[in-house]
């Protein structure tokens, strides 16, 4: 049976993103620091920040992926779902599903709303189609404080 969701066309345009004004300076500084070490990733993050809608922290929608959130995304090709916590590079730990914002998937997820589908280019140059399924705060997702 074909479901309505499998029939939805995927736009080649990038989905809209939202970033909190409180996190913008730290994200910009992070990208600037990475310009020499990993210019491709730094450029990707700066591009995303440049096109983002910036909102006050208290107006940040709860269903938008942000640093510290636990997010679940689905690979539209395989149907596989993965849940990760978005973190700054010093906190990244793939064994505990903590993904750095300075990775292709971290940059692709930041600022997205639940339900958004997007193309994700891996470091190997492979293009994948992913959908952001769920966004939760680390606390509501059961991640102990200080570990998000």
TrEMBL record:
Protein name as annotated: Nucleoside diphosphate kinase regulator
List the NCBIfam families.
PRK05753.1 (NF004396)
Q: Which UniProt keywords apply?
A: Kinase, Transferase
Segments forming domain Transcription elongation factor GreA/GreB C-terminal: 61-134
KW Kinase (keyword) present:
yes
Q: Which GO terms describe its molecular function?
A: DNA binding; kinase activity; RNA polymerase binding
Please name one Pfam family that this protein belongs to: Rnk_N
User: What biological-process GO terms show up in the record?
Assistant: DNA-templated transcription elongation; regulation of DNA-templated transcription elongation
Q: The Regulator of nucleoside diphosphate kinase N-terminal domain covers which part of the protein?
A: 15-55
The organism of origin for this protein: Sneathiella litorea
Query: Any coiled-coil ranges, and where?
Result: none
